[in-house]
Amino acid sequence: MNHCCWLRLFLLLLGLMVAGPVAPLWGQLPPLPEAERVSGAVVLVADARTGKLLGGVRADQAFQRTYFPGSIFKIAIALAWMQRGGFNSQTEFTCTGHDTVAGTPVRCWLGTGHGKVRFVPAFAGSCNLYFQHIAAGISHPELLRAAKQLGMIGPCNFPGEPIGAPAVPHINVQNLLGESFTVSPAQMLRLALTLATRGRLAIAPFQLSGPRYRPLYQGLRQCVQKGTGKGAWHSAFTVSGKTGTVYRDGTRSRTAGWFVGFAPSDRPRYAVVVLNPNGTGSDAAGIAGAVFGRLM
User: Fold this and answer.
1) pLDDT (tens digit, 9 = 90+) per residue, 246-265?
2) What is the spatial distance between Cα 279 and Cα 203, in angstroms, rounded to a whole number?
3) Which residues, listed in sequence order, are joined to residue 100 by a DSSP beta bridge?
C-alpha cells in the first residue's frame, strides 16, 4: 500500500474516532402508499419491542409539526385518575351532548350524546363530557405528571431531537381535553411506545401493568374494535389505540386528526403514530390500519 493510501486510511480512522459511528435516524420500511398520498400526513413507526425507530412518511417532520393532542389527552386523564386512587371503571355519567362542568359549558363531539356511559365505552367512544367530569376532580399537578410520564410533555429522547426543554404548559379547566398545549409526532410516538410496553419504554420507566390499568387497555382495544378508531381494525390481528381530532389554525372549521396505537394488542411488535393535518382522528385511524396491514 503506497503512502497516499495509508494517508487516506489514517484520515478515515481519525474521522471515525472524532465523530464516532453515524447511526441512521430511520430504518427501512416497506412503501406506505396509503399514507404517502394523503397530503401532509406524517406517519412514524417504531419497533415496540426495542423502541428502535423504523421509519415512516414525512419522518423529517417528526419534531417540526405540532398540534393540540385533542382527545389523545384522555389517556393522561385516565392515567391520572387511576394513579390518584378512587378509580372505578363502573363510574357512570349521562352524556346528553352538552353540560356545564365546573362552571364551564362543555359540548361532546357527538351532538346527540352517548347516553349513560361508563369508563371503557366512554374511552372507546371518546366521550368529552365523561372525561371533563373526571378531569375536573383531578389536580393540575396530577394531570401534568401523567402527561409527562406518557411522553406527551418534555423531551422524547429520539435521535435528531432539537436541543432545549419545551415549556411546561398550564392545563386549565377550559382545556382539559387537549387544547392547552401542543405535541409533536415524535412525542406521540413515545406515548405509543410507553403504552405498548406497559411503561417499560417510557422516558422514566414505570409500571402500567396489573389490574389497576386493565380498563385503560380494554379502552384502547375497544376504541379500535367498535369506537372512534375502528378504521384501524384488522381481522387477522388486534390493534389498540386512540384517536384525537383538533381544530387547527385558530379556526373552528379546519381539523387535524391523530391516531396513536400498537399491534398486535397482546404482544406488540409495532407502535404507530399518524398525523393527518387535513382530517379527523377517524381518518388518521384509517391510515394507521393500512400501515399496520403493510407491516404485519
Assistant:
1) 988 766 778 999 999 999 99
2) 30
3) 105
